[in-house]
């Protein structure tokens, strides 16, 4: 094999990433509100031995506007909770990583830590977590605890906006730090479970996290014993320098949005430089490039399907990630170029579900295997192991033996 095999993930959102996907999906408009739909998607992804799937979530309704409802009634609106979807499909899968999205801005880190640790127990060590900053005024309005001004996309470089974004990511950083400390607050051998002596836990192996910061004051310990991975995988979506630094300090995986191989190489270079700047310890970030994909048997059919979706939407679809439309073979060529530019793998966003997911699993994956770029099965073990990440010891156990 001449090239290192790549990591491959899929991002699931509603009936697909194109806003008109529900009009053409084979699943039916009500499918995303059923457990059967999500179980089928996860099963399809696992049959193709994908590393992980992510589940999108937000605290406001989908909208074509940057902030607040758009008043449209011709697009999918409403979603189920991502963590609960992951918990539902965990017992129905055996190998694939499950990575739900949650907001760090309006959710207490104690609750987040217990939810993801519980998912790691239920899945046997396959849980991940994508912490997300909620920068929208509409989301803040659901809670009434803080004011967030409407962000103007044309004025993102203004000092007030930069301060707000910096504060939101600093808060998210503290939230992830609290979550990670809580995951460590039970040592691996804290549970004795000795019926004869009547000792269920060793209280000396449960630890207060005693975190005090600008946004949180959390004592601990967690109510959930240390999970199979010790530290479930933390994955971050990042588009620029501030979230790159956030990922370098707090994440295991970063999803990025390059536009071409040169841009991909530049992003990877910037991330590696940021890792040095922040003094990252442990393994480097796994860098996965995001792509919205619309696949068909021929380039012409793919173009026609995209044109049909855009026509139903009433505008040409654009996204934070590049959109690829073409054949699975053409996509393989693109992935090879970007992989050579330095990314460790890809998170593909199917334009229409389940249609483009099955094109990924049944056409793209076999083509990647033919090129020696993707494995034919799961090696077994946890999501951390699948990504080449070691299982860390609890920081409190390390401190106690230092």
Compact overview of the structure:
This protein has helices spanning 21-24, 35-47, 82-89, 109-123, 137-140, 159-184, 241-250, 261-277, 299-313, 328-340, 355-370, 383-386, 395-401; strands at 7-12, 52-55, 97-103, 128-132, 191-194, 199-201, 211-212, 217-218, 233-237, 253-256, 286-295, 322-326, 345-350. It is an alpha/beta fold.
Query: Which second-level CATH architecture applies?
Result: Alpha-Beta Barrel
Low-confidence stretches: none
Tally of separate domains: 1
Structural class determined from secondary elements: alpha/beta
User: CATH superfamily assignment?
Assistant: Luciferase-like domain
- Compute the gyration radius: what is it? 21 Å
Number of strands: 13
Which properties best describe this structure?
single chain; 402 residues; alpha/beta; TIM Barrel; eight-stranded parallel beta barrel
């Amino acid at each position: 094999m001449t090239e290192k095999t790549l990591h491959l993930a899929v991002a699931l959102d509603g009936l697909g990433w194109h806003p008109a996907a529900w009009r053409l999906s084979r699943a039916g408009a009500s499918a995303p509100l059923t457990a059967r739909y999500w179980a089928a998607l996860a099963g399809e992804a696992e049959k193709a031995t994908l590393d992980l799937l992510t589940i999108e979530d937000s605290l406001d309704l989908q909208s074509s506007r940057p902030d607040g409802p758009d008043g449209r009634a011709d697009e999918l609106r409403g979603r189920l909770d991502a963590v609960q979807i992951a918990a539902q499909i965990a017992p129905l899968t055996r190998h694939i990583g499950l990575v739900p999205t949650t907001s760090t801005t309006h959710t207490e880190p104690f609750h987040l830590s217990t939810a993801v640790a519980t998912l790691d127990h239920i899945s046997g060590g396959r849980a991940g977590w994508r912490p997300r900053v909620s920068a929208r005024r509409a989301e803040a309005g659901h809670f009434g605890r803080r004011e967030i001004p409407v962000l103007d996309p044309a004025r993102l470089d203004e000092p007030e906006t930069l301060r707000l974004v910096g504060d939101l990511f600093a808060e998210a950083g503290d939230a992830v730090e609290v979550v990670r400390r809580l995951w460590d607050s039970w040592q691996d051998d804290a549970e004795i479970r000795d019926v004869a002596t009547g000792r269920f836990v060793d209280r000396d192996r449960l630890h207060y996290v005693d975190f005090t910061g600008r946004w949180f004051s959390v004592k601990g310990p967690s109510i959930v014993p240390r999970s199979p991975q010790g530290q479930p995988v933390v994955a971050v979506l990042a588009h620029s320098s501030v979230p790159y630094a956030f990922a370098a300090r707090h994440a295991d995986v970063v999803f990025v949005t390059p536009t071409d191989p040169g841009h991909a190489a530049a992003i990877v270079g910037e991330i590696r430089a940021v890792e040095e700047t922040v003094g990252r310890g442990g393994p480097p970030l796994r860098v996965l490039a995001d792509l919205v994909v619309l696949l068909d048997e021929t380039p012409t059919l793919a173009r026609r399907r995209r044109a049909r979706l855009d026509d139903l939407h009433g505008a040409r679809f654009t996204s934070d990630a590049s959109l690829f439309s073409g054949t699975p073979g053409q996509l393989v060529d693109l992935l090879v170029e970007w992989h050579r530019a330095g990314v460790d793998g890809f998170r593909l966003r199917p334009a229409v579900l389940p249609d483009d997911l099955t094109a990924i699993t049944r056409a793209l994956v076999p083509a990647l295997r033919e090129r020696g770029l993707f494995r034919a099965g799961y090696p077994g073990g946890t999501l951390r192991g699948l990504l080449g990440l070691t299982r860390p010891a609890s920081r409190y156990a390390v401190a106690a033996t230092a």
